[in-house]
Specification:
With 365 residues, this protein is of the alpha/beta class. It has helices at residues 43-49, 97-100, 156-160, 165-176, 192-204, 216-224, 238-244, 261-270, 293-299, 313-325, 344-352, and strands at residues 3-10, 18-24, 31-40, 59-60, 64-72, 84-87, 118-119, 126-127, 137-141, 145-147, 184-188, 208-213, 229-232, 251-256, 271-279, 302-305, 337-339, 359-362. It has two domains: 3-147 and 335-362, Quinone Oxidoreductase, Chain A, domain 1; 169-306, 3-Layer(aba) Sandwich (Rossmann fold), CATH 3.40.50. Helix 4 (165-176) runs parallel beside helix 5 and helix 7 packs parallel to helix 8.
Length: 365
């Protein structure tokens, strides 16, 4: 029968994110109900709160989660009750034009649960990124669950971050930027996603990894996770500093994790000839950029956008969890604080001050 549980909902644009009760229905065909274990506080959730993603209020926030499967609907075969999973928002359909071309990482029709969760008065909720995991339980499509085996409960908060921000950053380096051994990489913006891109560049074998930010605390953390050089762009010209650290040429790959016109221009001009620029930050819809066409032509290379780190969860999550278990990927370093469900709004403020890489809500084990 349906479950009434506590969850974090925002009822209208810029309203506070508050704990209220919601109703989670029994899973239908292809659907799964999960008990949420942990959920990271991601800036995308604040974008939903601020009406920057859409206006389908009320929103059930949260999407960066570990969970345990509680119930499965008809026809579900990829997970069983009791499985521990990381939730993802790329449940590939296998049928759209991207999937038919074998480009599952660009699936244009990812699956979500067909039923809606509701407030107790019956008002339908829009689940953030089709997940809505700032909740004791949530309803998702079965394909949004990636099973992780042999992960101790003490690691739930860390591995759950692969559900969005950490995967976006690592994937921006490895999948989208295609960083190769011996290459140079610069990352502009060292919040959670940018710092994960630095960790990804290290995993890929980059030998020069340049972290760029205006916050000395973030630069220090970037060094802990693999940066070989740091640039405080409040004190130095970022483009000139990146060139200085790359023999005067610029980096092979420059990743913009800020997504402002000025940082994108820095990324564009800080790369070597035929280098790659990767935009992984999500820009404000009002932002525009102007570049001379001769520079677009003359510098060559590639300008790429990275959607979810161009990941395929069924492939990438288990691989990165294995690297974590081997001690080669320090996911624990991204968990700055552990909080309660009723502290999400406060965590948004902490995030905006730059005090954390990730606050993580812990629910049950």
């Amino acid at each position: 029968m349906p479950h009434t549980v506590n969850a974090v909902v925002v009822t209208e644009k810029n309203a506070p994110a508050e704990v209220t009760q919601i109703v989670v229905p029994d899973p239908g065909p292809g659907e799964v109900v999960v008990d949420v274990l942990t959920c990271g506080v991601c800036q995308t959730d604040q974008h939903f709160q601020q009406g920057e993603v859409g206006d389908n209020f009320p929103y059930l926030l949260g999407h960066e989660a570990t969970a345990r499967v509680a119930e499965v609907g008809e026809g579900v075969t990829n997970v069983r009750v009791g499985d521990k999973v990381i939730l993802n928002w790329r449940a590939v359909c296998g049928e759209c034009r991207a999937c038919r071309k074998g480009q599952l990482k660009y699936c244009f029709n990812t699956h979500n649960a067909q039923q809606k969760m509701t407030l107790t008065d019956g008002t339908e909720l829009e689940a953030a990124l089709g997940i809505g995991s700032f909740a004791e339980k949530t309803l998702v499509a079965a394909g949004q669950c990636t099973v992780i085996e042999d992960v101790d409960d003490s690691a739930n908060a860390a591995v759950g971050l692969l559900g969005c921000g950490v995967m976006a950053g690592i994937g921006a380096a490895i999948n989208t930027g295609e960083v190769a051994r011996g290459e140079s990489v610069a990352v502009i913006g060292c919040g959670g996603v940018g710092t994960a891109a630095i960790a990804g560049a290290k995993l890929a074998g980059a030998t020069t990894i340049i972290a760029v930010d205006i916050d000395p605390r973030k630069l220090a953390k970037a060094q802990e996770l693999g940066a070989t050089h740091t640039v405080n762009s409040a004190e130095q010209d970022a483009v000139e500093a990146i060139r200085e650290h790359t023999g005067g040429f610029g980096a092979d790959v420059v990743i913009d994790a800020v997504a402002r016109p000025e940082t994108y221009k820095q990324a564009f001009y800080a790369r070597d000839l035929a280098g790659r620029v990767v935009l992984v930050g999500v820009p404000d819809p009002a932002f525009t950029i102007e570049l001379p066409m001769i520079d677009l032509f003359g510098r060559g290379g590639a300008l790429k956008s990275s959607w979810y780190g161009d990941c395929l969860p069924s492939r990438d999550f288990p691989m990165l969890v294995d690297l974590y278990r081997q001690g080669r990927l320090d996911l624990d370093a991204f968990v700055t604080e552990r909080i309660r469900l009723d502290q999400v709004q406060e965590a948004f403020d902490t995030m905006n001050r730059g005090d954390v890489l990730r606050s993580v809500v812990e629910l049950s084990a």
